[in-house]
Amino acid sequence: MIMQSCSLLHAAHEDEDDRVFEMSDYQGPVARWCSGCGDHSVLTAAQRLMVDQQLEPETTVFVSGIGCSSRFPHYMKTYGFHGIHGRALPVATGVKLTRPDLDVFVVMGDGDCVSIGAGHWIHAIRYNLDMVAMLLDNNIYGLTKKQTSPTTPQGYRSNTQPYGSYLPPMNPMEVTLGVTNASFVAQTAEWIPAHLFATLKAAHEHKGFAFVRILQRCPHFTPDLYSDAVKKPDLVEILDHPEGIQVEGLDKIYKSQLRHDPADIHRARELAEDGSVIRLGLFFRDETRPRYEETRTLAKRTSREKMDLLNQDFDRYAV
Amino acid sequence: MKLPTVGAAALADREVSVRTVTDLSVEVVSDSGEGAQKCGQIFGAVSAKMGNGVWTVEIIPAEVEPPPRNPVGASGIRIRLGDKEVTNWGDETDVVVAFNEQALLGRHQLHALSPDAIILLESMWATHPDPDIRKQWEDAMQELSGRNYTIIEVPMEEQCLTVVDNPRKGKNMFALGLLCAIFGRDVERAKEQIAHAFRTKKQEITDRNIELLELGYAWASENLDFRYDIPTMPAGAPMVVMNGNEAIALGAVAAGFETAAMYPITPATSVSHMLGEVFEKYGGVLHQAEDEIAAAGVAIGASYAGRCAFTITSGPGMALKTEFLGLAVMTEIPLVLVNVQRGGPSTGLPTKVEQSDLLAAMFGQPGDAPKVVMAPATIEDCFHIMTTARRIAEALRTVVMVLSDANLATGVAPFPRPELSPEWQSAPPDLRPLPAGAKPYDWNERTGISRRFIPGQAGGEHTLTGLAHDERSKVAYDAETVERSHTARSRKIAAFQRTLIPPEINGDPEGGDLLIVGWGSTKGAIEEAVARARAKGLSVSSIHLTFLSPLQPGLPEIFARFKKVMTVEINYSDKKDDPLIDEYNRRRGQLSMLLRSATLVDVDCWTRVLGEPLRPAKIVQAIEENMPGGAA
Lengths: 319, 632
Known about the structure:
Chain A is an alpha/beta fold.
């Protein structure tokens, strides 16, 4: 199961491929994010995942939009697509729909996913293409210097809403769990690397659209956002279940554990809706949901076969 | 030939006259949902199959079912027939079948009907129980009487009721029967065509429609004393007959496209209907995206991943895709965008023709975004242009905009059946590993062209970006790199321009008084108008441009041979004598602006935005009025 998708890829290269990949095979130039930025942890976790899964750099594609976190692909030594604001998901859809052999990761910020690209987010959940979608959610627009995002806490001051954000923030977990055909919904935090890694690994193993919201701090514009939670592990509740995301030894620090069966979508929605505590873990998973790429049975045709078929179609229009 | 004004029954004992004509237009007009287009399409196809030149234009209201019996909501189709190839919809209609007098009135008010048109009009409204309808009928007859029309009342409803309960579904096939009788169409062919048109429906539907066809045929045979004979062309090369959107869809298949992404928009959508039906068996993916922007993104993602991809839209959709088009230009991802233009701005005229997106296609992206813009001029072009566009997009790693329009989209005309070649298809993506040090933007200094890397190619790993970047795709803001990368993207277009040939001159290659320049779907009407004007002794020629960006070579030399150059286009321009307008503030036709800028020649323009294709007679008039040295 773990290696299912990768083994298929590896099979194609079996005869000549005895390469062993290390961290340095995935590490691009030094990241230009601020020190203390949560993006660094996510980058490291993704690179660790690639080593762990021995993913080929040439068949892995990281697609991003615009924003601090969207620089992500530049710091990977894989194929990368740093596109336009909010539109990472349509590009990733085009890649995966037509090249199912490629391993696709999508990196979005909260502006990308929850605001300007929200329409694509809803539909990507429904398409359920086999990819990992990471929402790097620091609750603020960073690159453009502190504007309110849809996930900014109510009352939080920014340059566009200097008297405090007017409305309650949008809850991306609630939204994702509410969309028809959601198949994998998890939440993790950049300050717990073991949980972050385990979550990305579970997401990558999932056959379908794996949505991972990563809570993170912006050292410049939202430094205090999760500072309490970072200091007091009791403010974090870990969702625990044999079918969920399990991290050995984590319960020694994070004593607050809640048993949640990820097959239970109704409970998952309740847990997502309840804002009294920060919950990390696998909220929901269902691998039986239809995947868009599976609905297409693409015939493999040679050019000559295509022309023969086209001649038949032309017969219908013959004078 | 003598014709009565009303009442057909009395004709039974008269002698039948046959008039031989070489050029004639027929219209079927109805309320929406009464199937006038289906009737006209079958009539056109049968006529083409019998060897007549044919061009059809659909008259479609923007709504699915606008209020009935309304001049503005008239739905219909014009079929122009000839004894040789027909390249446009002509001027006015000679024979009309109208399902109610209001739809007829709509066409009359648009001056679509010849002054001595013969009109076969449903008679039920004259004696309708509703007094308001009877009043409308009388008023309409009054208005129509100002012209020399011959109106023949036909009891369509009464006749159709003998076969079907609801003549709204069936009157069109009765009308087809009328036309088949009047024009001596082969009824067996008509039956075959009906069977084809209703192939996805139950057999009884086909049977009933054939019954209605025969009923109409019999009624006309017994009651009408006139027939038309349109000589046919000698059988030549095998032909196919389809509309422009079908031709684009099949052209995309022939070109080897593997992915089409779109969002429904009139009048482009029917391309995707065709692809939806056939694309999968060729291994193609038709993706109906959540919005226009996503459709562009999916096509770009697919193309980036090594598949041949295109996106189909119309003006408003092209606007939404703008940011992605800029990205494709910047990252040099091959992409073909087909814009089936409609009237604008904004929602404009969704079902009507305009050529108003030329400048938006060329300059619509913020920043400098050089690309190739081309336009099919005929339905045959719609097929072949897809292969050309794909090849250019892939060879140059650039965006190619194909500007079709509503006239071509639903227009039906026969064209020589293409002799398909597997070489039109793209080669499979090259996934071989890349040599050490290979750069994803290794711009050739002279041509700007660089090799495309595809995910899966070991050694080619890089992140492409919409940010300014260098040859290795690394973000680079330094002056020298920014200038160099701009140059490379632009130079590709110049390199491509060097491969083009000058346009052919229709008329006198030596030159003359007036040169008409056109682009897109107006070619047939312009060339017919030039032929008519030349027959009158006017020294006028025309050229038609397939490429708008880059412009084909040779234009300055051609322009120099004529005293005056004038574009003819379906987009807005101020007329010279309009209030407040002078030479300086006059807004000109879009091609004329481009040509003036490129050649410094004082290129004039004659443009109309009537929501319909140009009529050759109007262009002749424009030619006469614009001959250098005053009207001829």
